[in-house]
Specification:
The chain has ten helices and 18 strands. It is of the alpha/beta class. It has two domains: 197 residues, Rossmann fold (3-Layer(aba) Sandwich), CATH 3.40.50; 118 residues, OB fold (Dihydrolipoamide Acetyltransferase, E2P) (Beta Barrel), CATH 2.40.50. The longest helix has 18 residues. One of its GO terms (molecular function) is rRNA (uridine-C5-)-methyltransferase activity.
């Protein structure tokens, strides 16, 4: 499809076209859905992967104002002026925003008071990033200044007062917790897991639930021995415990410590392994121990691991991908081995962006 800003559909956000946060608000809901579906089809076609006999669900599109994470940019442009927002497209110029139709309302409502407290926390003409995450206890906010300096007593008091007034769960500045009302956690399948301000999480709670549902649905009914590769803090690991014994592999030590705490507390059938899967993918003998392999790699995919998987006899492989290019590349390798693509479930969790998340299910041929 060829679609342009000439569309007659009116974007809901007043900042669209200037703010680089969204690229596709100019499309009507039906055109937007068609565009994403066609994007998926073209990606698989480029790898000569036929979807004719694949269970291919319509794309699931998340609702506006459900994004639980945002990385805001800030610049104290003048004595009493702080711009807070996102970069312009292909630029480092910050668009000062008043509204955002993507993030949760409580994150949007934080922008104005955040702008005010940054007058006290940022030196003149300096910049910062603000990481905001919705957790079970409220908002977890972390300020990372481009030019860190020791906070004065007045700055600490201003930050603490801001955190109290906004009912934050935690406020950190330059890596140091300044205020903690409660240790932030997120819940996966009913199990709470500690998070840090830089924790990797899916974009929304809806995304967590949808991905867990699709992955668990793809697990065969009899008890399984499951490998969860790139397991993070347990987005899929924890729901998978209801379907078999799970071995989780992850290179982020902090994520593993947090997940192990939850596993121990609830006596779950999970064994965790600290493993750099890009440098040290699971070997063929290790993979042979599992009935099902689930993997949820970063944007670059899991090329080294996929090459090993393509040579195994694992009955089912379930892959969660946030990048169609690496997804279809890895799918091609599995198909050229001895696997067959059986199911494809797309998720549009980054609303109005070019990104698409997909869950693909592969079965061993024969």
């Amino acid at each position: 499809m060829t679609l342009s800003l000439a569309s007659s559909y009116s974007p809901p956000c007043p900042h669209f076209g200037l703010c680089g946060g969204c690229a596709l608000q100019h499309l009507s809901p039906s055109d937007y859905r068609d565009y994403k579906q066609q994007k998926i089809l073209r990606s698989f076609e480029r790898q000569k992967i036929s979807l004719d006999h694949v269970l291919f669900d319509p794309i699931e599109i998340v609702l506006p104002q459900t994004r639980r994470r945002a990385v805001l940019k800030a610049h104290r442009a003048a004595q009493s002026v702080v711009d807070v927002g996102f970069y312009q497209r292909e630029s480092h110029k910050i668009v000062d925003i008043q509204r955002c139709f993507v993030v949760l309302p409580e994150i949007e409502q934080l922008i104005s008071p955040l702008r005010q407290v940054l007058i006290a926390l940022l030196p003149l003409r300096s910049k910062a990033e603000i990481f905001v995450t919705k957790c079970e206890q409220g908002l977890d906010v972390a300020l990372k200044r481009v030019e860190p300096s020791i906070l004065t007593l007045e700055q600490r008091e201003a930050g603490a007062q801001f955190a109290i007034e906004q009912k934050l769960a935690r406020l950190s500045i330059d890596g140091e917790p300044l205020y903690i009302a409660a240790s932030p956690t997120v819940s996966f399948s009913g199990f709470s897991v500690d998070i840090t301000p830089d924790s990797f999480l899916q974009a929304s709670f809806t995304s967590d639930e949808w991905l867990a549902k699709k992955v668990c649905h793809a697990i065969p009914p009899e008890p399984q021995k499951i490998a969860d590769l790139f397991c993070g803090r347990g987005t899929l690991t924890l729901p998978l415990t209801k379907l078999g014994t799970v071995h989780g592999y992850e290179m982020d030590q902090k994520a593993l410590i947090a997940l192990q705490k939850t596993i121990t507390k609830h006596h779950l059938p999970v064994t965790l392994h600290h493993r750099h899967l890009f440098k040290e993918p699971l070997t063929l003998p290790e993979l042979a121990l599992f009935d099902v392999v689930v993997l949820n790699p970063p944007r670059e995919g899991a090329l080294a691991q996929i090459k090993h998987l393509a040579q195994t006899q694992v009955k089912r492989i379930i892959m969660v991908s946030c990048n169609l290019q690496s997804c279809t590349r890895d799918a091609r390798i599995l198909i050229d081995g001895h696997y067959e693509l059986k199911e494809l479930y797309p998720l549009d969790q980054f609303l109005w962006s070019e990104h698409v998340e997909v869950v693909t299910v592969f079965d061993l041929k024969g």
